[in-house]
Amino acid sequence: xxxxxxxxxxxxxxxxxxxxxxxxxxxxxxxxxxxxxxxxxxxxxxxxxxxxxxxxxxxxxxxxxxxxxxxxxxxxxxxxxxxxxxxxxxxxxxxxxxxxxxxxxxxxxxxxxxxxxxxxxxxxxxxxxxxxxxxxxxxxxxxxxxxxxxxxxxxxxxxxxxxxxxxxxxxxxxxxxxxxxxxxxxxxxxxxxxxxxxxxxxxxxxxxxxxxxxxxxxxxxxxxxxxxxxxxxxxxxxxxxxxxxxxxxxxxxxxxxxxxxxxxxxxxxxxxxxxxxxxxxxxxxxxxxxxxxxxxxxxxxxxxxxxxxxxxxxxxxxxxxx
Length: 322
What we know:
Blueprint: H1 10-17, E1 24-27, H2 34-41, E2 45-50, H3 56-65, E3 70-74, H4 80-84, E4 92-96, H5 101-104, H6 130-136, H7 139-150, H8 155-166, H9 174-185, H10 196-207, H11 209-223, E5 229-234, H12 237-247, E6 270-273, H13 281-286, E7 294-300
Parallel strand pairs: 1-2, 1-4, 2-3, 4-5
Antiparallel strand pairs: 5-7, 6-7
Helix pairs in contact: 1-2, 7-8, 7-10, 8-9, 11-12
Protein name: Ribosomal RNA small subunit methyltransferase H
Binding site for S-adenosyl-L-methionine: 33-35, 50, 77, 96, 103
Organism: Devosia riboflavina
């Protein structure tokens, strides 16, 4: 039996938008509807977006429970400004980045290295699959992908073992790939599963998650009214770094000397930016999958939205093979 989906940092997300009565919030990553239901119960109207066709029953249930206050639009959150404009004005956007426990628990979706299933990982259930990447990329490009998107330090050895294995037969299942990775780099008691970072990298590549995230952030900047709130939950350092730089692009830049002409900084599109929030011990005990989550939120100013910039946010790039 599949474990129920438990929304991460739910109370903190709802608190970030308070007060909610009469406000309209876009839930850009609807999933099983945990955030949407909590926001509706707190008094908000919700426009939900998701590209996964399997979420339809959850959306139908909320539409029945909150008639006239819940609207579902199929699509990707990278286009949330276009998809949600008919429901404007929009006072808040919430994004929960990454794979949901609902998807992890469906072995046929191929997201989990703990469950036997086809090596798929496509959230939209269309396009190039993880099996396509694993079986067709050149060894160097595969290694670069695992390093850039998964921060896998042993990516070259893993890629070498994958290429050797696929010369005998195509790699088609999740557990088959997990075993190859474990054989390549070993497993120490108490450590995370050796396939964790590689599966993350493949999932990000298959679904274009970094591009989706960047496009979604800038779409929210275009969509939100002045004073509107954007709240983003991420699950690993690469995503969190992108969100942090988006909210505060000047932070971490070179210090300015008071003895030299001052560099004119861009006017702030988000101010104030709230302090990052991580789950407490009670939530971690209840939901171990929340352990790497971080919530960042900020308030939209009246300054004109910026053009989309991937470089400015330090989005990882996979180099091609030589």
